[in-house]
Every structure is written in C-alpha cells, then in structure tokens.
What does this fold into?
Amino acid sequence: MGDERNLLMIEQLKTYFYLDENRVAKAVDGVSLSIKPGETFALVGESGSGKSMTALSILQLINKPGKIIDGSVSLDGMELISKTDKEMSKIRGNDISMIFQEPMTALNPVFTIGDQITEILRKHKGLKKKEAHNRAVELLDIVGIPRANEIIHEYPHQLSGGMRQRVMIAMAISCEPKLLIADEPTTALDVTIQSQILDLLKEMQEKFNMAVLLITHDLGVVAEYADRVAVMYGGQIVEQTSAKQLIKEMKHPYSKGLIQSLPSFKKTQSRLDAIPGTIPPAYDFPHGCRFSARCPFVMDICTQSNPELIEAASDHHVRCFLYEEGGADIHETASPAAK
Amino acid sequence: MVVNNTEKSDLKTVNKTPFQLTLKRFMKNKLAVAGVITLSLIILAVILAPLLTEHDPTKGDLMLIEQGPSSEHILGTDGSGRDNFARLLYGGRISLIVGFAATLFSLAIGLVTGSIAGYYGGRIDSLIMRVADLFLALPFFVLALTIIAILDEVTISVFVTIIAITTWPSLTRIIRGSFLSLREQEFILSAKSLGASDFRIITKHFLPNAIGPIIVNATLMMATMIIVESGMSFIGMGIPQPTPTWGNMLSEAQNIRVLRDHPEAWIPPGLGILLTVLSINFIGDGLRDAFDPKSNRR
It folds into this structure.
C-alpha cells in the first residue's frame, strides 16, 4: 500500500477466546491493516465487532482465555507477537500507548495526577524525581490543563471527565510514542467536550508526529479526523479505504447500514433506520458471510461461503460478494429487502 | 467532596490525601479513638514494665505463696510465689507480641499468596485456593493442639508460627477477592498499556486500592490471635510456664481457692485481655468505616 514505509503492520491477526471446550470466540479473525507515520487510522464498528480486541492485541494485552493464535504485528519492522512480556512492557507507553473510553476509571484513584505521570516518565525515560515533576507540569500544560502546577497535586476524583481524559492523554504522550491507540476516547464525554478532546488529539498528533489508531463507532468522527478507515464486523475488516472515499461511497452493506442509522437534519423521521438484528456472538457466526443474516442484499452465495476482502476500486477494499466478478451486475439489480 | 471556588485559596483542605481523609473519618468514631487510647496505654505499660516493677516475673519466692495484696506485691503473689503485678505487665508483653507477630506472619503469607492468586488467576489461583480451602477445613484447635503435643518445647516463635500457618487462608481469600474485583478496573489495563510491570502493578495499583479491607481484617485478626493465645495458655497448651502470659495467669484461677479468695490474681489479666481485644475490635470497626468510601459523602 503506497511506497512510504509503514509504522505499524498487522497481518492476518487472529485472536481467539477459548470459552470452553466447544466454543471458540473469534474476536479478531484475520485482520490486516497498516498505519503510516503521522497518520490517523480509524477502526469503526459496533460493539463486539473486535475493534478493541484488535487494539489490545497490538499491545499484547490479551488476557486468558484469549490468545493470539496467528498473524503478525510489527512496529517499524519489529515483530511484536514473539516479544516476551518484559520486552513488551518497554514498548508499551514508550513506543505505543493507549487511552481508554472511561476516563473516570482509567486513573488510579489513590494516587495524585502527578504521581501517575511521573511514574511513566521515571520508568521509561529514567528521569529523576524533580525532572519528572517538571516534565509532568509541562505535559499537563501542553494538553491544556489550566493551573497545571496545582492540578498535579490533585486526585482523579477532584477532576471532571474531560480533564481526566486530558490527563490520560498527557500520560499517553509523555514518552512521545510513535503510535497512540485511542479506544473510543470520547464516548463517555459530553458532546461539547468530545470535539475538544479530538482536536487536542489532532494537535498532539501534529506536534509529536504520532500515528493514531482511533477506535470509534462514530462515522462523524471518522469523516472529520481520520485519514484512513477500516470498518469491522464480526472480527473481520469488511471495508477498508481512505476516510474521504468511505464517506463519498460506502460499498459494503454494513457500512451503508451504519451511515443510515445516523440521525440526519435533512430528513424528518420518527424512527432511525437501525440495522435489523444484532451482531452474532463471536463463537457462533453464521455459515458464510458473517453479515448475511442482517444484510438487505443477501444472496444465495452469501450463506454458503464467506467472501474475501477484494479491491473493488482503486485502494478501496470490500468483503462482499456484490463486488466480486459479475457481482456488480447483481448489485445494480439487487433491491434491498427492507425499504 | 465539593470544591467550591471560595475554597480554592485554601489548597491544604482541597488536597487532602486519601490517607488524611481516612484519618479524619477515623477520628470521628469516638469508640475507635477510645480504643486507640486504651491500647496505647496498655502498650506503654508493658513496654515500661521494668520501670513499673522491680520484681522478676519468672522467679518465685516459695516462702510467699498466694499472698494477698501488700505494699511489696500490690497484686499479691501466685502459687509459686511470683509477683502477680510483674507477671501482669510482662505477660501482657508476651500476649501482645504473640498477637502482633502472628498477625504479621499470617498477613505476610496471605499477602503473597492472595496477590499471586488474584493477579495471575488460572491454574496457580486454583492451586493456592485449594490449599487454602484445605487449611480452612482442618479444625484449627485440634491441629494446633496436635502440633504442640508433638513438639518438645513450645517457644514463642514456634507458637506464633503454628497460629499463623493455620489462619492465613482467611486473609488470602480477602486479598484475592479484592484483587479480582480490581483486576477488571480500567486503570489496571491502562497501567499495563503504559508499560508497568507485574510487580509494579501489584504493589502500586492493586495493594494501595485494597489496603482498606486488608488492614481492617488484619486488625480484627489480631484480636482473635490474642484470644487464641489466652485460650491455649489457659488449657496449658500455650506458652509454657514460667513465662508469663495473660492466658496462663488465668489458668491459676482453675484452682477454686484462688478463684474464690484471690480475685486480685485473675481479674487483672482477664481485664487486660478484655480491654485489649475490645480496643482492637473498636479500632478495627473504626478503620472499616474510615476506609469505606461511602461515608465519604459527608
């Protein structure tokens, strides 16, 4: 993909959860993606589609009964899957760091903000106590926290949600990582704070030339902040292209369903067009295409085999039979089962 | 914990550490404070024993057996002519040391096993918890009595060890339980994603958040340990004579003559046990309330 080297390459990543003897949840099932330095890559999908598990797999933070069974994750050409936990702990926070959905619970309640930031600086950068403290104040200042040298002595419960997310960002960027994984960073925040936090992320990204893997279910966020985007469904990528291209022309029926389920100012409607049904449990995907049971364009072949991810247009990959050879014709004639 | 703008100038009140907040809540509990004062006085008395009495608690004067109170022996003497007041003070030392050391020992085992079980889970967790279940299933008194009966000599350290190895499972369970609930907290995952090692996560993120239940249970356990020591010494299976403990001072009262004619010989050690255990329990209750975040709201 392009001739510029990739920062992060994920190839055919498979993370399975062995629930019991008979059930294996294929949380991430053959995901491949690549992120270039400084780029924002969005991973979109509804709950349970495997977005967060993909992110945790990158950091090798999959807990039992989960296991990465196959594939490769490489950062700057360095393979991460074969790394020991000790080696990984040097990479986490240093080269790759992560911020989470719930700023309320992502900070340790019994330590001050300063303690938590300096801890990382001292571990990864080997700074002395005093230096780390000064750097922490600086970082808080950078992420736009007023009165940084007072806030640094406060405890998480004394801060608002937006402030805590800023602190999380300060912690995540403290070692100037090459890749920042943001797992639904604004889901738990007010709408007004959401855009502030996303703008801050963008600003930090430019300042430190970080790549950002943005996990979200908000296509509006994708349109505004992402360079490239992958739509996930049932542990697989079903559509992957540039953010611009996706917004312009969604190909996969699931992506279309996602955008249709957004409220719009243009049309008045009493109900939103939700995608019928729910995502099947990861241990019980239907035979054939995983979206087939909910797809309005479902064809016979969809229930028989799972389509491959194919390049339907230049740099626009889709996992759908509608776009396989001759599929385009069907696409023209196929009418949605539901209006 | 409302921080008003008007309060901002007074940063000292805003930036209370969790420890200070806990202390503040603890001080509100009058019984717990009374417990601290009483226990401090008892501890002070047993530490300063050599200053408070010049008698040797282990050496008796066979010419002065079961004497009543006098200016020389303010609580009289026991069946071997040993000064009861000296025995009360030095005995308190032993009882408190046994209670404290046994709790510490038990806590150490519980911390290590509970942390490992709760943090790593899986097979190692099952193994530790099954061993703990095994120890809990054994009748404590029978086990302790059997070991003591087999051993030739029961020293304080042996006695402490016996109590500790039979009581650690309850602390292991509590520590494992709080770890299990903390394990699902996002800040643990967050710490991991920022590169903290296992040891660091256990010591910096798990233990400080689990410290409340650990301290409370250890405190309450200490009271039980003192009772156990007294009980075992009372039936003659604890620390052997002539070393004084409150328990074996009480065993003197098995003699009906002492029980009836010399209340000054057995009431003080009984009172010592009662006050110490009550104080510790009150402190434990106070700590429980102080560590409970729900009482934070006021």
